[in-house]
Amino acid sequence: MHEALYYEKLEDKKVRCNLCPHHCIIKDGKIGICMGKENRDGVLYAKNYAQTTSIANDPIEKKPLYHFYPGTYILSISPNSCNLSCKFCQNWEISQMESPTQHLSPERAVEFAKKYKSIGISYTYTEPLMWYEYVLDTAKLAQKEGLKNVLVTNGFINEDPLLKILPLIDAMNIDVKSMDDSFYRKICSAKLQPVLKAVEISQKSCHIEITNLVIPTLNDTDELFHKLTDWLASVNPNIPLHFSRYFPNYKMPLPPTPLETLKRARDIAMKKINYVYVGNIHQEEWNNTYCHNCKKLVILREGYFVIEKNYSNGKCNFCKTPLPIVG
Ligand code: SF4
Fold it and tell me: Which terminus of the chain, N or C, has less C-beta within 10 A?
């Protein structure tokens, strides 16, 4: 068992975990909210170290990352852990309850990534920052081998551990689930502010893209779309924004998001954000990339696949404007 990196010992063999803003106080023999940390005899351990629920070689577009090595594949692995409890979780079988895992050492993960010609490793599907100790060790090895490290995360993490891991991370997709703190509290048992802070810090260090899952009646007002747009534009208007269509799952029975709502969100965001996409739908042109300067098509996609690229050396082939695309 690997000892956890961020915690303090309290009286009566209790510990306080300081990895994420929950700051769980965990009694001897108990686990934290995320299921990934366990107190054994007053010592906090990373219970989920090197245990993965899934191994797949995904198109990078599936993360979604549309501006990071478009058209490549990435080894995708995930812990049986999450620090949020979103009622609409699309992966609840592996994030919200104990599920089967298999052992995957950092060395084996790197070996697989190389064997399957992935550009690197994506820590994804559930909440990879709850796999902190393992991600840190694996990402160090991967970086030494010239592989990329990608986090697909809810961004609900404390600042110190985030700053420590960022030098190893090449790209992140961070969920901003709503600009309304009460949504985070009621629907996800979390808070908005640490997530916004994580985006602001991370974008200074690596490539990032944002996902906003749009759920009817819960986070789909014009006011919230404007808030998200204004905030993201103030951070960096070149950060790609992915609206994603919701489908009923886990404890959320609401019907799927209407296309008109997604169109409304897209129209609002496109006034200030240069690259806006809509995922989980068959509306191919909403998933293509158009140069923010000349508006010509620079990446044509079909589903998760890149069909055509019209840029080279980071510049649009038509107007030569530098594009915010890595790789
Ligand atoms: S990382 Fe897990 S155990 Fe630690 S504070 Fe967050 S939810 Fe609690």
Answer: N
Which atom in ligand 1 lies closest to the alpha carbon of residue 26? Answer: 3
- Amino acid, res. 221: T
pTM over 0.85: yes
Band the pLDDT of 1: cuts 50, 70, 90: confident
Dist. CA 249–CA 254, nearest whole Å: 9
Burial of 325 (0-12, 13-18, 19+ CB in 10 A): buried
Two tokens, residue 257 = 């998001």
- Pocket probe mutation, ligand 1, options 3, 6, 14, 20, max atoms within 8 Å of Cβ: 20
Measured in angstroms, how far is the CA atom of residue 19 from the centroid of ligand 1? 6
Residues lining ligand 1, CB < 6 A? 17, 19-20, 22-24, 32-34, 36-37, 83, 130
Minimal-distance CA residue to ligand 1 atom 3: 32
Q: Where are the domains of the chain?
A: 2-46, 51-316
